[in-house]
Amino acid sequence: MPSNTYLRVLFSLIFVSLIASCGFQLRGQYLLPQELQTLYVSSDDNFGELTRLVKQHLTINDVNVVESPKSNTPELKILRDQLNRRTLSVLPNGQVAEYELIYTVNYQITLPEQSPQQFNFDLYREYQDDPNFALAKSRELNLLLSEMRERAAERILRELASVDVTGQ
């Protein structure tokens, strides 16, 4: 029986060392450059959901989010987040049956004594509309938009982890 316990411990140690050696990290943890460990986040809508989510993700990742800009503090500025929709299919009576939601995010990161680095991306989701269930579909649309904003905040942090901080 004791040898069985030793084998389990040995197997666990080998498994943990293999996982650690391949660079595996739990999702949601981002290794931001040292220059971005203190950051000022601004937006035209400072109380908007995307801005709030980005600040929340930064705080979770131990980034010091300052409340006011300083000359030597990098700035993450969310320039635009916008939802557009495109018709994908129409019912025989002419009503729209399905939309493609397009969530566009533009932002920039400005490091001290460097020109701003601009980033933009689009997120896509399909949304089926049914006028007979307007209230439920409205709620579904709000949930989809919240999910898209969450994905956008995660993507901003992933892209921040790869920002060129050397200015080259």
Topology of helices and strands:
Elements: H1 2-21, E1 38-43, H2 49-60, E2 64-66, E3 75-90, E4 96-110, E5 117-128, H3 134-160
Parallel strand pairs: 1-2, 1-3
Antiparallel strand pairs: 3-4, 4-5
Helix pairs in contact: 2-3
Write structural notes for this entry.
The protein is α/β, with parallel strands linked by helices and 168 residues long. It has three helices and five strands, in the order αβαββββα. Strands 2-1-3-4-5 form a five-stranded mixed beta sheet, covered by helices on one side. α2 crosses α3 (134-160). It starts with a helix and ends in an 8-residue tail after the last helix.
Number of strands: 5
| Topology pattern, helix = H, strand = E | HEHEEEEH
Strand content: 25-35%
Low-confidence stretches: none
Strand arrangement in the largest pleated sheet: 2-1-3-4-5
Largest sheet, strands/sense/barrel: 5 strands, mixed
- Mean model confidence by pLDDT: 86
- Tell me the number of helical segments per DSSP (H or I, 4 or more residues long): 3
The value of Rg in angstroms is 22 Å
Share of residues in helices: 25-40%
For this structure, the quaternary state is single chain
Rough shape? flat
Helix/sheet category: alpha/beta
- Measured distance between first and last alpha carbons: 61 Å
